[in-house]
Design goal:
alpha/beta, 6-stranded mixed β-sheet, 5-stranded mixed β-sheet, 13 helices
């Protein structure tokens, strides 16, 4: 990864042949970029103190003062199973957005099959982007920049979006912004709730992630808790599959709907990690409990819920309701502790942002709203269409970083076929809070990138 001597960038250059740690902070020459009109990024003078596990130094807002505020950014998202694109103005206006779902593939394979997902992305990416531009009544030359998710996610899927973004940026000489998928989930709340200012607490919940973060600024995050095994969305999806539910809507909505018919107290599942007084999550044990309950009730997932007897349907509904109650109770307990930690670190916090695909669940929202109100805070949830993976959140996060001078120059108009893209399938968002470390955690560290926060901190120190 190269970092400009003029400003920090999240770059999409080829992977270096030297070890990552030896290549992170190589300076490149400043460049001139076309943004509506040609302008030269001025040198910056701000600096950061060194990072610690418990403290993240704030960075000045909008250090590049003469970046125009009438930006129009195309965002592209292909990190998992949805192909999405959107065009967003820097004033927050969403000009268009398109999402192509892989619901049929999910139902066919009972989850995401990376190679099939990659092929599905490749088949529709051109159409999705073109339709997005057409709906906005724009062409590529009207854009100020292109933002694209570079991680975390499935490498095969990420590559499709990055290739498309670089092709557009190279052909039309547009700057490009590499976006962290989970940061995009957090920052889209600043698009929908314009009064949301830093610092704030965020719970990011999806099929692959459970994160509790203290957001202190764009690119500046302290991780209070994460999952030590499975995320809540994965638990929802597996439970839905084992109960024979229709996965074309994904597991979350299917479980939420069936749970309304069941008794949430009928099965006494154990709440995960009661003995661990931290903010980390675990859903592997709850999944095992659910599977045992399904087996003891002789539920056959091969018989779809639509064909189940009334007794069988009620049994499935009771399991769904009991699972959902405990799965969300685990969120409630972790959020309560995270709020206490966050208020101790940043007493000015007023908001808890809940985002990610699982945040679309009304039951989740209602339960967390009670926790937030009890602590005198406000709950901020983006609308469901912006909780699931989408291009709007990528475009908006690109705008947030662009305003701070973090972007890459236009790539070459033509790149060799063997070009190796900088993809970050396993990419932490923030630095870990010391008290948030879990003895139970067994996180794999192979092929993991330094966190977004640490990269930005280090790049700014290089400039000082």
């Amino acid at each position: 990864m190269a970092l400009s001597s003029t400003f920090s960038r999240l770059n999409l250059f080829p992977k270096p042949s030297l070890p990552f740690s030896a290549m992170v902070f190589i300076a490149t020459k400043p460049f001139v970029t076309r943004i509506s009109s040609i302008w030269q990024p001025p040198p910056t003078s701000f600096s950061l103190n060194s990072i610690t596990t418990n403290s993240i130094s704030p960075i000045p807002e909008n250090p590049i003062s003469n970046i125009p505020d009438n930006l129009i950014v195309l965002g592209i998202e292909t990190s998992c199973d949805d192909t999405a694109a959107a065009v967003v103005r820097s004033n927050g206006e969403i000009l268009s957005q398109v999402v192509s779902s892989q619901a049929d593939l999910l139902a066919q394979y009972g989850g995401v099959a990376p190679k099939m997902a990659e092929e599905a992305h490749a088949q529709v990416i051109d159409q999705v982007v073109q339709e997005t531009l057409d709906n906005a009544n724009l062409c590529e030359r009207d854009l100020s920049a292109v933002a694209v998710t570079i991680g975390p996610g499935l490498s095969l899927c990420l590559r499709v979006g990055v290739q498309k973004a670089r092709r557009i940026a190279g052909t039309f000489s547009l700057p490009i912004v590499g976006v962290h998928h989970m940061e995009a989930h957090a920052l889209v709340a600043r698009l929908t709730e314009r009064e949301l200012q830093f610092p704030f607490l965020a719970l990011l919940i999806s099929g692959g992630h459970n994160l509790l973060i203290l957001a202190r600024d764009v690119g500046q995050y302290l991780q209070l808790g994460t999952t030590i095994d499975d995320a809540i969305g994965e638990a929802y999806d597996k439970t839905a599959k084992w109960l024979g539910l229709d996965l074309r809507r994904s597991g979350g909505p299917a479980i939420e709907e069936l749970a309304k018919e069941g008794d949430a107290q009928s099965i006494k599942f154990s709440t995960p990690m009661k003995q661990h007084k931290d903010c980390n999550f675990s859903y592997a044990g709850l999944k095992t409990q659910v599977k045992l309950a399904i087996e003891s009730n002789n539920i056959n997932a091969a018989i779809p819920i639509s064909s189940a007897s009334s007794y069988d349907r009620r049994s499935r509904a009771d399991i769904a309701a009991s699972f959902q109650r405990v799965a969300v109770l685990h969120l409630e307990e972790r959020c309560q502790r995270a709020i206490e930690w966050a208020l101790n670190l940043e007493p000015s916090i007023k908001y808890l942002v809940v985002s990610g695909g699982v945040a679309s669940n009304k039951y989740v929202r209602s339960r967390l709203d009670e926790i937030v109100k009890k602590n005198g805070l406000h709950l901020v949830c983006p609308p469901p269409s912006l909780c699931t993976d989408n291009g709007v959140m990528v475009a908006w996060t690109g705008i947030e970083h662009f305003r701070m001078g973090r972007f890459d120059p236009p790539p070459p108009a033509e790149e060799p076929e063997d070009f190796v893209y900088d993809l970050r399938p396993r990419w932490p968002l923030g630095e870990e809070y010391a008290e948030g470390r879990s003895e139970a955690r067994s996180l794999r560290t192979a092929r993991i990138h330094p966190s977004l926060t640490s990269l930005i901190q280090a790049s700014l120190q290089q400039q000082s």
